[in-house]
Amino acid sequence: MSSREDILQSIRRATHVKYEKPDLKPLEDMALTYPSKVEQFYFVMKQVGGEAIFLEKEENVNDFIKKAYPGAKRIASNLKSITCATFNPDDLEDPAELNGTDLAVIDGKIGVAENGGVWIEQDVKQRAIYFIAEKLVILLDKNKIVNNMHEAYKLIDTGEYGFGTFISGPSKTADIEQALVMGAHGARDVMVVLI
Fold first, then answer.
1. Which of the listed CATH numbers 1.25.40.10, 3.90.1200.10, 3.30.200.20, 3.40.50.10420 matches domain 35-194?
2. Model confidence at 21: pLDDT above 70
3. What single string gives the DSSP state of each residue in the chain?
4. For 62, which of 39, 84, 94, 148 could close a Cys bridge (C-beta 3.0–4.6 Å)?
5. Which is higher by pLDDT, 19 or 134?
6. How far is CA 169 from CA 87, 136, 147, in A?
7. What are the C-alpha distances in Å from 180 to residues 36, 110, 177?
8. Are strands 135-140 and 189-194 parallel, antiparallel or unpaired?
9. b/e sequence 149-179, b meaning 16+ C-beta within 10 Å
10. What is the mean pLDDT of residues 111-116?
């Protein structure tokens, strides 16, 4: 038997009481709602250090990305509509090959007004792209913004790869000597393009 199995067996032997999941319905009834989910999302995204931009209907997303990030040389995206991408991350076998990615353009599934979070379902083979790219552009349908996490959890799916994550603004930590460090665990810059 492996050490992992030994540990799991010990936990099973020591666990005598089984607890049912709590009823979250009372908490859902107290959850925050907003008169304008889109405006709240926009406001909170700025508060967490990110940026939300409304793309005009006549504006081309590829032209917008090139204008917003003129210095980006390695642009990753597997979205068919993103023609400004210089490579498709699905074509890479080793996630280490993603190192040096200036910008990744990805698809957001759900936006959350209360915290500026965007549910990212793994749509690419190598999920490291979400965290290794220096900058992220998340495309999000403004009609897919919900009030709170209670509403979001009811809608999330982990898709084909069985992985998803919420991203809310750029990566940041203040664990090191209480100094704010941007990009420690992910992108230094996050822009949500509301379409």
1. 3.40.50.10420
2. no
3. --HHHHHHHHHHHH-----PPP--HHHHHHS---S-HHHHHHHHHHHTT-EEEEPPTTS-HHHHHHHH-TT--SEE---TT-TT-SB-GGG-SSGGGGTT--EEEEE--EEETTTTEEEEE--SS-TTHHHHSSEEEEEE-GGGEESSHHHHHHH---TTTT-EEEE-SS-EE-TTTT--EESSSS-SEEEEEE-
4. 84
5. 134
6. 24, 9, 17
7. 31, 28, 9
8. parallel
9. bbbbeeeeeeeeeeebebbbbbbeeeeeeee
10. 96
d(CA 168, CA 50): 7
Say what the pTM is: 0.82
